[in-house]
């Protein structure tokens, strides 16, 4: 038990070995929140005509400022209302010590979060830390030792997250496919991983493992890295998949030691986040 | 158990509570504010303000006013008939009354330089705003309640826990949340403890945050006074004496407030001088030469009730050209409001950081500043703004708001600006307490002085208006 305590404290020490993940969590929570928020359906089919809000066909940018301001304000208010009543379910795959799972579970529009991982140890650490916030007394956040492939396909989620784990698995496309099979129509799969390029090798393996020692040696192997273009091609390659899913966004990001994580201009280099939506 | 416990019901603490309850993102947080003294006079002020001005008056920057209007929403509850906007400060020397600098708001493209307002007016407007928002279970104010101790819970051995059950006993020590012990015998455990508890901040001590600075060996004597009649010029006056600056700042109608920075000896004298002599002493301080002032001080030192000084002052004032007296000086002070004199030690201090895990410092708990540019309370308002921004962002990101992952951005945004302001006011203090009058000094430097005078002027005007 002492071992798990130590593991829990080290996972959750924001100045400890997982500091990079804690810092990354800030940026990815922004990415998830903004993506979900910006793609809400503002006039769902059951909306009465008089309650519909106006969505300009060519976007708001062409409109005069005053009108644009009003329309944007109205849209933002509608987004707030929709989120106020939303009750989304989340599956966090490869949840580790629960950094992302806890954050998702605190959002008011999330109904429940299930974190799964293959390591008994990290799950114990996650549970220990969960017990330190009375907020989770309500049972909103649960953890399970399970591979995603072993969850029934009837169990569907509005949001599935797989952050910083695809680079650790033997067959990433299998895991991604398993996620696609378990996401609701209109729902989201969010992933993050690393491009297999020179910069990634240099920053994450060479610098991270060997020079800076911020991640344990052996954490990453270059041949498991997937380029974001490969994921896009993988979607294109299958007509059914192509029709059912859309890669809505991909953003590159980089860690600057004194600053934290920030988005870069291209998702093709180094680390990236990706948002995939199930359209039908 | 509370999400946020705020210690201190001064301007900073009440502003923070009202700002948290005004923001749609933080409104739901359970908050308790604890104040050691009674807030009854603050509540009474809201319903029935006293006739006379109270003696704690501050100069608010336009930025603070905007913050109160837009973010906190308490400006509507300010008793507007008791605030005074002013657009100009005239500063001059005891060494040469003709050496003057004018700080005019129009020079920086603004109509208003700053606003004079009583501390209690601000506090009561915040209570008004909180009442309007509705005091429900998630908003508690405990006044007449002192924090007697703050402790960190001992970490229990978590080994006993059955991890498949969520097991959190409220108020128990398996939470790393600080526990606040109250004079009423109650204890509250807080996810985030915010110290708005002033210069001696018990919260800062609990968190082990170092605060650096020094005493100026100077006291600020404040008083509320009446001028001969209402001055429609809306000017703040500041005269640099070798003992420190003396300022008269306008309030509504014929009221005004003074801040007389002075040596310990002079400040004691100012407090004990007969209340009927005091107004004349201010007139002397705003006008007469240092040698004359020294002579008058010495008379009063021997006998604070020596009405003969009135003749001495009157005779000297009568030698000054009446037209110049009317145009270039404040109106005569005619009355001291009873019991309105008080003195405060002036000091500079700045905490090394404003946060620790589950702790944040706001307002005077984090920094104290020389009042010559009237910034203390304004800096606290800007702190509140940055802290609420950080908490809103933390909530949007689903973080534990007690975590330094959330609080760090508060320090990053608030600290550097405050540090600069502290530095500016410290420099101004040093310039202003030279034995030479600073304005004379600047003028005496010839060609260069113009630029230098400009830069001191810029510093001052930026400091006062908070831009
Ligand atoms: C002479 C003078 C002139 C000034 N002029 C200006 C000006 O023109 N403009 C300006 O902006 N500022 C001015 N200031 C500064 C301004 O008054 C302060 O910055 C401001 O009042 C600080 O507010 P605060 O809420 O941070 O602290 P405070 O007002 O000090 O409030 C702290 C509160 O915490 C409470 N407290 C402390 N310990 C405990 C405890 N253990 N339990 C319960 N409660 C506790 C206290 O009772 C108090 O109410 C001036 C200051 C002085 C001295
Ligand atoms: C670097 S951690 C990331 C943790 C978490 N997702 C985050 O970003 O905060 C990678 C985690 O993925 C888990 N993992 C690796 N392969 C997995 C798999 N096939 N299925 C589920 N989890 C896996 C590991 O046990 C580890 O906890």
What can you see in these coordinates?
The complex is a heterodimer of chains A (280) and B (467). Chain A is an alpha/beta fold. Chain A has 2 domains: 1-39 and 88-278, 3-Layer(aba) Sandwich (Rossmann fold); 41-86, no CATH class. Chain A has helices spanning 2-12, 19-38, 65-85, 99-106, 120-130, 172-180, 198-211, 228-236, 239-244, and strands spanning 88-93, 110-117, 141-145, 157-163, 183-194, 245-256, 260-263, 271-278. Chain A has an 8-stranded mixed sheet with strand order 3-2-1-4-5-8-6-7. In chain A, strand 1 (88-93), helix 4 (99-106) and strand 2 (110-117) form a beta-alpha-beta unit. Chain A is globular. The model of chain A has no long low-confidence stretch (mean pLDDT 88). With 467 residues, chain B is α+β, with helices and mostly antiparallel strands. Chain B has 2 domains: 2-83 and 118-210 and 352-429, FAD/NAD(P)-binding domain, CATH 3.50.50.60; 216-344, 2-Layer Sandwich (D-Amino Acid Oxidase, Chain A, domain 2), CATH 3.30.9.10. Helices cover 38% and strands 25% of the residues of chain B. In chain B, the strands form 3 sheets. In chain B, strands 5, 6, 12, 13, 14, 15, 16, 17 and 20 form a 9-stranded mixed sheet that branches. In chain B, strand 18 (355-356) and strand 19 (359-361) form a beta hairpin. The relative contact order of chain B is 0.17. Chain A binds chain B through residues 1-2, 5, 14, 22-23, 25-26, 29-30, 33, 80, 102-108, 124, 127-128, 130-134, 136-137, 139, and chain B through 1, 24, 28, 158-159, 161, 163-164, 166-168, 170, 174-176, 395-400, 403-405. Bound molecules: flavin-adenine dinucleotide and S-adenosylmethionine (SAM). S-adenosylmethionine binds next to helix 4 of chain A. Chain B: It comes from Scheffersomyces stipitis (strain ATCC 58785 / CBS 6054 / NBRC 10063 / NRRL Y-11545). Chain B: Residues 185-411 form the FAD-binding domain. Chain B: Its cofactor is FAD. Chain B: Its main location: mitochondrion.
């Amino acid at each position: 038990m002492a071992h798990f305590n130590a593991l829990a404290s080290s996972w959750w020490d924001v100045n400890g070995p997982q500091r990079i993940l804690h810092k990354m969590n800030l940026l990815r929570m922004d990415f998830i929140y903004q993506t979900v928020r910006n793609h809400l359906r503002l006039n769902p089919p059951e909306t009465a005509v008089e309650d519909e809000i106006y969505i300009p066909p060519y976007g708001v940018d062409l409109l005069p400022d005053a009108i644009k301001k009003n329309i944007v304000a109205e849209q933002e208010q509608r987004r707030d209302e929709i989120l106020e009543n939303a009750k989304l379910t989340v599956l966090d795959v490869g949840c580790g010590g629960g950094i992302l799972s806890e954050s998702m579970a605190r959002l008011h529009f999330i109904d429940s979060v299930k974190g799964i991982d293959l390591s008994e140890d990290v799950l114990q650490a996650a549970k220990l830390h969960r017990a330190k916030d009375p907020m989770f007394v309500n049972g909103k956040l649960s953890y399970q030792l399970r591979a995603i492939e072993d969850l029934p396909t009837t169990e569907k989620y509005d949001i599935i997250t797989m952050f910083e784990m695809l680079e650790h698995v033997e067959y990433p496309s299998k895991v991604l496919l398993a996620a696609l099979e378990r996401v609701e129509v209109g729902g989201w799969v969010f992933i993050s991983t690393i491009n297999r390029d020179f910069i990634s090798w240099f920053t994450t393996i060479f610098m991270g493992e060997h020079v800076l020692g911020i991640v344990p040696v052996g954490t990453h192997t270059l041949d498991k890295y997937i380029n974001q273009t490969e994921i896009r091609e993988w979607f294109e390659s299958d007509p059914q998949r192509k029709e059912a899913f859309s890669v809505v966004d991909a953003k590159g990001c980089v860690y600057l030691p004194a600053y934290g994580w920030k988005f870069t201009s291209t998702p093709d280099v180094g680390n990236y986040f990706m948002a995939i939506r199930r359209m039908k | 158990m509370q999400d946020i416990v705020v210690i201190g019901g001064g301007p900073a603490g009440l502003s923070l509570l009202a700002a948290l309850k005004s923001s749609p993102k933080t409104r739901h947080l359970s908050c308790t504010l604890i104040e050691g003294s009674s807030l009854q006079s603050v509540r009474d002020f809201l319903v029935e303000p006293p006739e006379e001005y109270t003696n704690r008056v501050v100069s608010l920057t336009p930025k603070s006013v905007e913050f109160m209007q837009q973010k906190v929403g308490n400006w509507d509850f300010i008793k507007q008939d008791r605030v005074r906007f002013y657009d100009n400060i005239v500063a001059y020397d005891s060494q040469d009354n003709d050496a003057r600098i004018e700080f005019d708001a129009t020079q920086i493209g603004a109509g208003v330089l700053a606003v004079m307002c009583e501390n209690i007016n601000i506090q009561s407007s915040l209570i008004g705003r909180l009442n309007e928002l509705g005091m429900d279970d998630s908003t508690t104010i405990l006044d007449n309640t002192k924090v007697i101790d703050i402790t960190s819970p001992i970490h229990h051995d978590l080994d006993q826990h059955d991890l498949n059950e969520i097991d959190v006993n409220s108020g128990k020590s398996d939470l790393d949340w600080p526990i606040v012990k109250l004079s009423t015998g109650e204890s509250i455990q807080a996810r985030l403890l915010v110290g708005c508890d002033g210069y001696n901040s018990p919260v800062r001590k609990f968190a082990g945050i170092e605060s650096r600075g020094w005493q100026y060996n100077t006291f600020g004597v404040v008083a509320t006074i009446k001028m001969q009649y209402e001055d429609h010029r809306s000017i703040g006056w500041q005269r640099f004496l070798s003992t420190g600056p003396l300022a008269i700042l306008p309030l509504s109608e014929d009221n005004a407030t003074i801040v007389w920075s002075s040596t310990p000896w002079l400040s004691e004298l100012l407090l004990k001088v007969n209340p009927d002599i005091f107004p004349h002493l201010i007139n002397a301080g705003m006008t007469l030469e240092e040698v004359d002032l020294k002579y008058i001080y010495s008379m009063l030192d021997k006998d604070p009730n020596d009405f003969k000084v009135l003749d001495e002052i009157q005779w000297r004032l009568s030698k000054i050209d009446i037209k110049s007296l009317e145009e270039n000086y404040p109106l005569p002070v005619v009355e001291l409001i009873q019991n309105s004199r008080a003195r405060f030690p002036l000091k500079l201090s700045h905490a090394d950081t404003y946060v620790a895990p589950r702790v944040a410092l706001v307002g005077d708990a984090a920094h104290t500043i020389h009042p010559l540019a009237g910034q203390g309370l304004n800096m606290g308002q800007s702190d509140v703004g940055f802290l609420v921004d950080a908490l809103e962002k933390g909530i949007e990101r689903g973080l534990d708001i007690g975590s330094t992952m959330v609080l760090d951005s508060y320090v990053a945004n608030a600290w550097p600006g405050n540090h600069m302001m502290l530095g500016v006011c410290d420099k101004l203090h040093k310039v202003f307490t030279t034995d030479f009058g600073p304005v004379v000094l600047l003028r005496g430097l010839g060609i260069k002085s113009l630029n230098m005078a400009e830069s001191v002027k810029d510093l001052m005007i930026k400091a006062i208006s908070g831009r």
